[in-house]
């Protein structure tokens, strides 16, 4: 009888362990399912070209610190004109263009709370403000019918000049007190560079004015970009 008793005891213990393991497995499975069903939010913050390196930091140190402080997942992504997905961006003082830009750097934020996006936004704005600290600024007027040409299709011209000279450019809408004019603001660290950029933008009035459409856009965008390159080389060689 003793061996039979031991067998029954062993069977009971094994059965109990089996039930425990099954319940434990089901519980973990439910927790995993609940975790997967948690709502996550994604947001994009456009990063101006002059501040991308500062936001990333050396070997990604700044970006990792931002993620640790805000408990979010962040990464720099580049969005091109051919991308099929829509982007809802956070607009700030460094992102004032009316058109959605293309081929731009964005900070993709993924989090389970919308409030954390604001924390990332605040941290990024502080970094950009520090980078811009010490920038010089010039302002000048252009004819409002040149806005489209100066900005370029999808903002190409402004971005190309900004990248070439490491400056920040903003072109306003037609002025309320004088709709024939628009205000151009250029910010950068080198005053001479700002003067060059001013000349390049102002030269748009004369270079291919006869080919400009009434809205201010070239029919051939690549042609207008080549034209800007020629002007830049001419200025640099002068």
TrEMBL record:
Residues 39-129, 134-205 form the K Homology domain. The keyword Nuclease does not apply. The keyword Repeat applies. InterPro entries: KH_dom, KH_dom_type_1, KH_dom_type_1_sf. Keywords: Repeat, RNA-binding. GO terms for molecular function: RNA binding. Pfam families: KH_1. It comes from the Eukaryota. This is K Homology domain-containing protein. It comes from Caenorhabditis angaria.
